[in-house]
Structures are given as structure tokens and as C-alpha cells.
Amino acid sequence: MPTNPFTPDEQQQIIDAIRQAEQATSGEIRVHVEPNCPHADPIQRAIDVFAQLGMHQTKEQNGVLFYLAHADRKFAIIGDKGINARVPADFWESTKDLLRNHFRQGDYVGGLSRGIERAGQQLKQYFPHAGADDINELTDDISFD
């Protein structure tokens, strides 16, 4: 099973979704993809990846990670303390449902793009872009294992 299941065009669509979502917010969104999840619970793996990618180091603790183990058909979405404290209680679960609906049809790019857009809307609401001082703290590239 390939580490990267996406074509270059599909990767660019996901990266474009991240850039679009981050335009109006100081929040940071990352996507991590691997074939297999080494944990029974994909949330635990997402927590590990979140730390490996240094996502906890954002100034306002407003990083969001979309984790996908495509061969195992597992995924998770997690946010740092800053964003978790502000989003509605059902936000992550309803976003997972959105992704799940796309993923069931084999539309990983569409699911990730829609989920990223949805996370960006929340980030924009609670963490608006800070103007000229706002820098992109984390790369927008997809990370792979």
C-alpha cells in the first residue's frame, strides 16, 4: 500500500484547501496521511503525530490536525487546547461525520477539503487573522509516514 494515495493534483487540492482555510485566521491546519494506524485508536495516533509535527507550539494553541490511515480506513480530527475550548461541543464529531460520508464513497480529497473548510470557518470565527503580524507558523504541506 503506498504511503501517499494521492496524485499530485489531489495533493495540491488539499494544500489549496488548507491555504484557503488559513487565509482569514491565525489558526494552523495540517494533514497527516499514512497507510496503517499503529494504534487501535486513531485519536491516540493523531495525538502522537500532533506532537511530532510540533503543532502544540502555535502561539494561540489553535492547531487542527486531520489524520488519515487510508489502508486501515481510520481517521481522526483533533484540535489543540485553544480551539477545543471554543468550538461547539459537537463540532469535531459532526466534522468527522462529514468526512465519513465522503470517505465511504472513496472521496478522500473531497472529504478532507470540506472538513478543512469547516475547521477554517471555526478558526476564523474564534481566531481571526492578526493582520501583518500574522505568520504561517506551520507548513501547509501534507505529511506522510
From TrEMBL:
Q: Which Pfam families match?
A: TPM_phosphatase
In this chain the TPM domain maps to 5-121
Q: Which domain of life does the protein's organism represent? A: Bacteria
The protein's name is: TPM domain-containing protein
